Amino acid sequence: MKKLLLVALALILFIACQQEQRYFAESAETKALEAGITAYESGDWEQWRSHFADTAKIFINSSKSISLDERLKDLEANTSILSSYGFDKENSYVEMVLDKDKETWVYFWAEHSMTLAANNKKIVFPVHLAVRFESGKIIEEHAYYDATEMNNEMTALAKMSNMENTTDDTE
After folding, report:
1. Distances in Å between the alpha carbon of 50 and those of 54, 56, 138?
2. What is the pTM assigned to this prediction?
3. Per residue in 88-134, pLDDT tens?
4. What is the rounded distance in angstroms from the CA atom of residue 109 to the CA atom of residue 129?
5. Nearest Cα to Cα of residue 84 among 42, 136, 52, 26
6. Domains in the chain, ordered, with CATH?
């Protein structure tokens, strides 16, 4: 009888300790995010957009969201002044997590590099993406990165361009 009781207790303990897997190194969502990043890097904006729900909210270093159309317009403008851009995928990290509310999040960490076409200046900075998926589409994206060096370069280029325009106007 004691053995049966011990076996039953061990079985109950074993069942109680079983936890649902909540972290995944690979999933349909991680593959979708990686495909979206590849589309971004090649400038295939239609393919990039296909990974998002039309109502997606996008947060760029802010608690205020922008629409998918606004983000696309910004990306097209920003990448148009670059001769190259992309992520260091060799040293990147991606994982999918089911949070306590059973929401599906994919986290991506990597270094992003870009080269400005005007002066061939290369800028490298770490990026963290936190992306929420629902029904296979991105419904929320949070992008975090230090844009200080990039903004300083853009400001310097704009000042140089304004000085050149002013010089051209006075001649």
Report:
1. 9, 11, 9
2. 0.80
3. 989 999 999 998 999 999 999 999 999 999 899 999 999 999 999 99
4. 7
5. 42
6. 21-170 (3.10.450.50)
